[in-house]
Amino acid sequence: MEPRFVEVEGVRLRYVRRGAGPPVLLVHGILSSAYSWADVIPALAASHDVIALDLPGFGGSDIPPAFTAERYVAVLRGFLDALGLERVDLVGHSLGGAVACAFTAAEPARVARLV
């Protein structure tokens, strides 16, 4: 999986994308990266457009000077906007689960399913 990059909220974000179909956004846990989903992505990509994001400060994404829960929500919003995604299935693990829950609470219309 070749990494891709996009700038959101002044932060360069790395992500990987594979497959086609309904979009699924995977958000990793603390001390991890998009590649923590490497074993899951091929199976999901058989029927979905799978996007795995490196949160700011992790993996190949820029390290921001400071980050809050609200900034993570803003980054996810901007990330979906940059990719032209209106609504996704959102899967989070550990820190990514907390970010996914906060995003869903702030943007319920943009999340079809939360895992």
Labels describing this entry:
single chain; 115 residues; alpha/beta; six-stranded mixed β-sheet; 6 strands; 27% helix
Write up this protein.
The protein has 115 residues and is α/β, with parallel strands linked by helices. It has helices at 41-45, 69-82, 95-106, and strands at 4-8, 11-19, 23-27, 49-53, 88-92, 111-114. Strands 1-2-4-3-5-6 form a 6-stranded mixed beta sheet. The longest helix has 14 residues, at 69-82. The protein is globular, with a radius of gyration of 13 Å. The two termini are 23 Å apart.
- Please summarize the sheet with the most strands: 6 strands, mixed
Low-pLDDT residue spans: none
The helix-strand sequence is EEEHEHEHE
User: What overall geometry do the principal axes of the alpha carbons give?
Assistant: globular
Instruction: Please tally the β strands and state the result.
Output: 6
Q: Which whole number gives the mean pLDDT? A: 95
User: In percent terms, what proportion of residues is strand?
Assistant: 25-35%
Spatial order of the strands forming the largest sheet:
1-2-4-3-5-6
Number of helical stretches of at least 4 residues: 3
Question: Measured on Cα atoms, how large is the radius of gyration?
Answer: 13 Å
User: Which class do the helix and strand fractions yield?
Assistant: alpha/beta
Helicity level: 25-40%
Distance between the termini: 23 Å
Secondary-structure map with pairings?
Blueprint: E1 4-8, E2 11-19, E3 23-27, H1 41-45, E4 49-53, H2 69-82, E5 88-92, H3 95-106, E6 111-114
Parallel strand pairs: 3-4, 3-5, 5-6
Antiparallel strand pairs: 1-2, 2-4
